[in-house]
Amino acid sequence: MAQHPTEDAPDRAVGGVPLPRITSADVARESGVSRTTVSYVLNDTAGAMISEETRRRVRAVADRLGYAPSAAARALRSGRSDLVLCALPDWPVGPVIDALLDHLTEELAVRDLSVLVYHCRGHRPLSDLWRAVTPRAVVGFTAFTAEEEDGMRRAGIQVLGTVQDEDLRRPGAFAVPQMQVGRLQVQHLAAQGHRVLGYAAPTDPRVAGFAAPRLAGVRQECRRSGLPAPRVQPVDVSADSGAAAVRAWRTGSSPATAVAAYNDEVALAVLAGLRAEGLRVPQDVAVIGVDDVPAGRLSAPPLTTVSQSVDLQARFLSAAVVAALDGAPEPPHPADVLRLVVRESA
């Protein structure tokens, strides 16, 4: 039975009114040939005994009707697609994820590969998407099930990914050590002479996979350094929330003199709260964040932070994708992804 990989052209609309889908059957009818002939012509099937006149007629009709093969059809015709699918969990997409995807897109564009981002929200299975777009590779920012990985690999799709540092289900996958993020924050604050620390925790449950290990690292380093346990307060991204946390940290006989924040956005809310409470940074309270976002460099005072080197991560992931497609060994995982960036806030 002949295959017709030119079937799924996109829907069209004029003035918001959908028009009928153009299919290879429409091209065949207008050209006066069979759908198999249309498939052979538009897919440049080798060895097909079709006259040049028929080829010109089929292509002209396809152009006139506005028919375009689907991505899946192009992949079937060429045996490969130019897509790399990035599967994101249900995370809030902030400046760090934006920057990572932007860097990854630039790196892969050098190899004529395009990035398609899929947010894993709702109950639709990932398999629906990869079967429709036939990517050459899938980069997971979340752990796949064994069934998902097996299905993609059997379909000839390269599967790569990043994991949380405590996730052992993906041996060899790239991980940014989130516990080490928290440890670095405390090490820096302790070196500055701070003994009582507050911790600004996020309120968004979607980032629990990052927040829990970072706070665990803060607690672990406090114990190792002989410091009291951090005084944890939830802080959303608002000055009022930051001010309420500051009041809690500053009460009692031993007020906190430094705050480690879950990330830079939360840290900026803490800075706003400190200003609202009439406290100086870093003279009264020092603040350190995570991620080195542009806004932190422009805050008053500029924010000390732990950078996760998203450009370095993107270069590694891009090189890993290319190596997988070329059948080459995976590149070495980058060392020293985490970097302390010291500015005036701490």
Automatic annotation (TrEMBL):
InterPro entries: HTH_LacI, LacI/GalR-like_sensor, Lambda_DNA-bd_dom_sf, Peripla_BP_I. SMART domains: HTH_LACI. This is LacI family transcriptional regulator. It comes from the Bacteria. Gene3D superfamilies: 3.40.50.2300, lambda repressor-like DNA-binding domains. It holds the Pfam family Peripla_BP_3. Residues 22-78 form the HTH lacI-type domain. One of its GO terms (molecular function) is transcription cis-regulatory region binding. Keywords: DNA-binding, Transcription, Transcription regulation. SUPFAM superfamilies: lambda repressor-like DNA-binding domains, Periplasmic binding protein-like I.
